Amino acid sequence: MLREKTLAVIGSGMMGGALACGLTQAGAMLPENITLFDTDQEKASQLAAKVGAGARVSDSVTNAVAGVDLILLAVKPAVVSQVLNSLTQTIQPNQLVLSIAAGIRLDTMEMHVAAGVPIVRAMPNTPCLVGEGATAVCLGTNATQDHLKIALSLFSAVGLTVEVTERLMDAVTGVSGSGPAYVYLMIEALTDGGVKAGLTRATARALAAQTVMGSAKMVLETGEHPMQLKDNVTTPGGTTIAGVAALERGGFRIAVIDAVEAAAKRAGELS
């Protein structure tokens, strides 16, 4: 479905780059069908080299989106309205706009495009770069089930994708949008703990990262509740229950819940 589509990526930052590279690395899109635009032309050129041979860099945002099938809006939330305003006469109803700008609501974006233009709002995360992203999408007023299929196909090429109602997008931001940062903190902490216990930093980091990846895979592939999986490795009087008790004393669980809530609240403020 996607390999025949043409895509314009507006913005060459972390997320725009992760998606563009992830799509070509997964074989979901051809580099020659991808056009990049960024106000920093050198940055866009560097991304084009990573996307693959044939990826093009446009000299203007208008030229980038003219005639393409899909438009990925990967700019900072503060400039979304400005970018869409500059493209009001260019974007047509037969094109699909996919926005990954955190906190910018569908009705806000629809105010800045021509009548009938379909918009899908998405919240992906940076693991899209390695094909293990987590993305939630919601449909705008003019987006149809066919547009949903395209969006699901695009983001599923680089990881797990779910559809939610827009009122839940702030919660998605708190869990999976910002979640990688929480996980990196945990890997860093596990690594430091391993170093304190005598491991080399390289060994501790490798073990910590693999443990997080393997544990996540267990949750997804077994379908078992995380509590049950935890109980499976906490034998009476053993080492793991001692470690779990230390985490509970430190408020680990409530700290993570508070982090999700704080990020979700901030996403709401941005909107």
From TrEMBL:
GO biological process, one term: L-proline biosynthetic process
Subcellular location field: Cytoplasm
Pathway annotation: Amino-acid biosynthesis; L-proline biosynthesis; L-proline from L-glutamate 5-semialdehyde: step 1/1
Signal sequence annotation: none
InterPro entries per the UniProt record, alphabetical: 6-PGluconate_DH-like_C_sf, NAD(P)-bd_dom_sf, P5C_Rdtase_cat_N, P5CR-like_CS, P5CR_dimer, Pyrroline-COOH_reductase
EC number(s) on file: 1.5.1.2
Superkingdom, taxonomy of origin: Bacteria
Reactions listed under catalytic activity: L-proline + NADP(+) = (S)-1-pyrroline-5-carboxylate + NADPH + 2 H(+); L-proline + NAD(+) = (S)-1-pyrroline-5-carboxylate + NADH + 2 H(+)
Keywords: Amino-acid biosynthesis, Cytoplasm, NADP, Oxidoreductase, Proline biosynthesis
NCBIfam families linked: proC (TIGR00112)
Family: Belongs to the pyrroline-5-carboxylate reductase family.
Record-linked PANTHER family: PYRROLINE-5-CARBOXYLATE REDUCTASE (PTHR11645), PYRROLINE-5-CARBOXYLATE REDUCTASE 3 (PTHR11645:SF0)
Protein name per Swiss-Prot or TrEMBL: Pyrroline-5-carboxylate reductase
Name of the gene this protein is made from: proC
